[in-house]
Structures are given as C-alpha cells and as structure tokens.
C-alpha cells in the first residue's frame, strides 16, 4: 500500500464515497425479499391496502437503491480513472529518466505493455473493488443474517454448501493466479514483435520478409493464446461450479423447506420460504462476485508487480550527486582520461579500452573506424547516454557527472546514426531544437542543412505533416531535417554520427561549410565512414576495436597510421572502379 497510497490520497473522497453509496444498494437488496415475503404471507388475508403499502415501500426502496448504485458507480469510475492517469504519468516520467541500459533491461515493447495493458488491469480492478468491496460482503452477511433469522434449522443447508463452495473457489484461484503473470509476459513478447515489424515495415518489404514476419507474429500470437487459455481454462470451471452448487442448494432448500411449509407443527409461511430461497441465491451470488474480485485481483497483482519493477528501477545515470548542477557548457572543450566502457559489466571484453583524447573548444574533429569499433559509444559518453566504467570524461574541464543532465545535454547537440522524426509538422519537429524559434530562423537552419529547397517544394511547406518516424520523407531528407533541428539548438558541442551518409558528397560539402559559418564557435565531432567527410577536420581520430589507433591531420595519418591508410586507399580504389586488393 505504500506504493499505491500516493495515488489514492488525492482522490480519497471518491474511494470512500463509492463503497458507501453501494451500502445503500446493499440495504435495499437485503430488504426486498423480506417485503415480497410480507406480501405473499398476507395475500391470503386479502388485505389489499397492506399489500399496496408494501409495494409502495418497495418502489421507494428501489429508487433509493438506484441512487446508491449510480453514485457508487460514478465515484468508483472517478477514483479508478484518476488513479490510472496519475500512475501512467509517473511510469512515463520514470521511463524518461532511464538511461539506454535501463530501457534495454525491460525492452521497449514491455514498457509499452506496462504503461497501457498493466495499468488498465489495475484500473479495472479498482473499479470492481470499489463497487463490490462492500456490496458483495454486505449482501453476503446481510442475506445470511436474514436467512438464519427466518429459519435457523433450514440454514444448516448453507452450513454444508458454502464451505464446500469456498474450498472449490480457493482451489481454482490458487491454480489460476500464477498463470496470469505468465500471460502478461507473453503480451510483452507480442508487443515487441508488432512494434519491431511495424516500425521497420520498409525493411521487411524490401527483403520480401512478409511471410516470415507473419509466421513470427503468428508464433508470438499463438504463444499468447495458449498461455491465455491456460490461465482461463482454470477459471472456466468457476461459473459451472457456482451454478451447480447454487442449484443443488436451492433443491435442498425446496425439499426441506417444503416439508416445513406442509408441517402441522409450526408451519413455515410460504412467503418466508420464497424469501429464504432468494437470500440463499444472494449468498451464493455474492460468493461468486467475491471470487471474481479475487480473480481480478490475481491479474491486477501480476500487473502491479510489473509496474512496481519500473517504478522501483533506479536509473543508472542521474545527477543527484552532481556537484556543479548550475554549471553550463560554455566553451565545448572535451577530454577523455583513461576511459573504459562495457555494455555488459561482467564481461571481460570492453567496448572501449583506455581512451585518452583531447578536443579543443571550437575545433572540428573527425572520428573514423570500422563498423563496431566503438565510435558511437565513444561520443555517447559525452552527453551521458552511458557512463564510463573507468576513467573520466571532461567537458570544459569538468567531469560530465558533475553537471546536471539538463544543463549538460542542453550544451550538446546530437544527430544520431538513426534519424528520428516525430508525428507532427516539419516546423514542430524543427522546434525541438528551439521551441521559440521564429519562422525565419527555421528557414535559415533548414537552408544551412540543405533542407529548405525540398521543404518549400511541399504544398504545405513547413506545415507539412510528418507521419510517425518521418516515413513520408526520404532518408536523405530525414537526415537534413535532423541536422537543421540540431543547428537550431546552437549547441556548444555538435556530434554528427554518420548523419550525412544518405546525402551526396556535394550536399555534404555544403552542410560542412554551413557548420563553419553557423557554428564557428562550437566544437564539432563528425563520425563518418567516408574519408571525404572528415579529411578537412582539424584532427582525426582512428578507432580500431575500441582503442585509438592514431590521431592527427589527414596528411599525417596517411603517412603514419596503417589503419587510416587502409581505409583511405580502399575507398579511393572503389571510387576509381578498381578491385580492392
């Protein structure tokens, strides 16, 4: 309850009023059979006035019950919806604080499931709980008292049937509960498959993988179906078992109750027998509702556990211990001191090993190396997307861990390897760089990024709507829009991670010239596969298997760095149409 108390307290009146309103309905439910018995018992006396009076009382009771039922449902809905909204808000806020490694731990699909399906399970449970937590036990207790008060001996039938029914319910619930946790895990798997497939639908189609991906989806879907059926099979028996016990109990009451009605000694009134049957039905139905609440609670508990895993997950990157929280990136100088990094902390092999690097403020630096050599990981440490396991990363002479994350990342602009645009207009996407940018500033940044020409050719220009992920623009257009977005940010450090790979060399050259003009005072780090992208840099670092194989100018590296020379000459040979020897 400690976890959930903060989501209950703001709406405590709703949590209290909902069950209280249901008590009004409970009182009416318990009184109605008694009123009916009174009419039946006195019908033989032909006292029409008495019967009409009781009927009026029944109508008034029904109206009051309706008010209580409507009020209970309303307050239960208000409480559960607000609870779920606040919980969803906090989960989302927590996910936003996660580092890449935290997100990798759960997977994107699993986080989506926890934000949606699991929260909905808890919301439904709270709605049912507030409507039934007093109603079902109230009817159970009230009907039991009324039944015993009518005929204590006949109540012995309940003393046999109710315990047997409770034992059956416990068996069903205890066997069903573990299966719901597994079912939610299978929902994660299905969501991961769908998200991956839909997000990368172009790749799927280009490789003609529709059939295989459909089979993959069908396998995940079948897995969820089988697990769901395994969970539901045990619950399928609940209804028939309840109905069986209810019918057997009614038969027993009719048998023994009928004998009491026909008895010459202290005969039981017919109306009392009718009321007794109704009360027994209410008792058994209340037990069924309590059971359904337990079933829902088992699903909700499985979801609650998964939600708590997210809420209690500690981000491995935060600024709680930062000593210079008010500091901002002023110059943009960067230094790596004996930096080592591993994605898997128990692994012996490091992705980066003993990196020592100095980058002067305002300079342009190129980073080149083979695929998987650690280039992207290296620059990710600057903005603390990951933290170094050993050594220090300094910006303006200050360890990046000493900055607040907000101030550090405000000073660092990144155009990542995978260019991401969001649903909305082009202008809205560009203003991620500066939300207060004017239309002229947008156009200027797009012009520098060589994007203005194609944006202006669209019918709606900068108001053109982009679909999710920017799938309605080409790869090169997407890259240029992402570069324009980064330019609007005017960062002191700009990192371009192979961000011009989808544009031609002439356009790339124009973009590099724009960097010199627009961001002359900023430090620019260019990660590239093409030598032509970095050959004009003030200094080039060559990364090979997580280590610095050499650094210097283009001319120096050609003469003194074997790895750089191999990359250069292989590209020159390819460019000239010769076979690579």
In words, what does this structure look like?
Helix content is 63%, strand content 10%. It is of the alpha/beta class and 581 residues long. α6 packs antiparallel against α11 and α7 (156-199) runs antiparallel to α9. The longest helix has 50 residues, at 48-97. It is elongated. The two termini are 69 Å apart. The mean pLDDT is 84.
Mean pLDDT: 84
Runs in which pLDDT lies below 50 for 5 or more consecutive residues are: none
**Strand content range:** 5-15%
Major sheet: arrangement of strands: 6-9-10-3-11-12
Number of strands: 12
**Helix/strand class:** alpha/beta
Total of DSSP H or I helical runs spanning 4+ residues: 20
Based on CA inertia axes, which overall geometry fits? Answer: elongated
Q: What percent of residues adopt helix (DSSP H or I)?
A: 55-70%
Largest sheet: 6 strands, mixed
Report, as a whole number of angstroms, the end-to-end distance. 69 Å
Rg over C-alpha atoms, rounded to the nearest angstrom: 35 Å
Could you list some keywords that capture this structure?
elongated; 4-stranded antiparallel beta sheet; 6-stranded mixed beta sheet; 581 residues; 20 helices
Write the layout of secondary structure elements.
Layout: H1 2-8, H2 12-43, H3 48-97, H4 100-106, H5 108-132, H6 135-150, H7 156-199, H8 201-206, H9 210-236, H10 238-262, H11 270-311, E1 334-341, E2 352-359, E3 364-369, H12 375-380, E4 390-395, E5 398-399, H13 405-410, E6 412-415, E7 424-425, H14 426-430, H15 439-448, H16 452-457, E8 465-466, H17 475-489, E9 493-497, H18 505-518, E10 523-528, E11 539-544, E12 547-552, H19 554-560, H20 562-575
Parallel strand pairs: 3-10, 3-11, 6-9, 9-10
Antiparallel strand pairs: 1-2, 1-4, 4-5, 7-8, 11-12
